[in-house]
Specification:
single chain, 216 residues, alpha/beta, TIM Barrel, 9 helices, 8 strands, 34% helix, globular, binds D-xylitol-5-phosphate, binds zinc ion
């Protein structure tokens, strides 16, 4: 499986996001991970579709939008119109089959995510509904810079095994939160192939080298 690196702009300087996404592209990132937070599903507020619209002209990289919001069904048109390539919705916040149908009609890749306390099985219906990607949170959603929750590794394995036994062995599985150069091998070994990295990338003095090492 090809390993993709999706730096999260949550960890970047919000006054320079246009330049940042250009730099990410030059540094070999595969996706730009956009952490959308509404202050309800998670306590912090970050940004909405306007930010996606603003950065869209500055990069060709796929914009990987992680919607940590209540009622995502009221926002997906705006993200599609803003240029989102992948929209990830929380299983805990919506009816996945209905939302996946809407996302497909908007021409956006469909992705479902679960929180650390949500069992891996909660992602299985999304596989059956034709997900283009699955995301597992390995930290409590809302903040960057947290410690990786080790129990996520078993959940990644369970989700990868379900994909293998249900005809989509190479489905993209993304992991989000607390991934570092030290634990990324375990994360990939467990079956993930798309790595979100905020702090690890934006704390680095050499983003390209760090992205290269994360990709292994
Ligand atoms: C947390 C976000 C994550 C976070 C990752 O709610 O979904 O994407 O920004 O940041 P790090 O890599 O710093 O844990
Ligand atoms: Zn995220």
């Amino acid at each position: 499986m090809n390993i993709k690196i999706a730096p999260s702009i949550l960890a970047s300087d919000f006054s320079k996001v246009g330049e940042t996404v250009k730099k990410l592209e030059q540094s070999g990132a595969d996706y730009v991970h956009c952490d959308v937070m509404d202050g309800n599903f998670v306590p912090p507020i970050t940004f909405g579709a306007q930010m996606v619209k603003a950065i869209r002209p500055h990069t060709k990289l796929p914009l990987d939008c992680h919607l940590m919001v209540l009622h995502p069904e009221t926002h997906i048109e705006d993200f599609a119109a803003a240029g989102a390539d992948i929209v990830t919705v929380h299983v805990e916040a919506c009816d996945i089959p209905a939302l996946f149908r809407r996302l497909a009609s908007l021409g956006v890749k469909r992705s479902a995510v679960i929180n650390p306390e949500t069992p891996a099985e909660a992602l299985f219906p999304a596989v059956d509904e034709g997900a283009d990607m699955l995301l597992l949170m390995s930290v409590r959603p809302g903040w960057g810079g947290q410690k990786f929750i080790e129990g996520t590794l078993k959940k990644i394995e369970a989700v990868r095994n379900y994909c293998i036994s249900h005809g989509v062995p190479d489905l993209d599985i993304e992991v989000d939160g607390g991934v570092t150069e030290e634990n990324v091998k375990d994360v990939i070994g467990a079956g993930a192939n798309v790595i979100v990295a905020g702090s690890t990338v934006f704390r680095s003095a050499d983003m390209a080298a760090t992205i290269g090492r994360l990709r292994g």
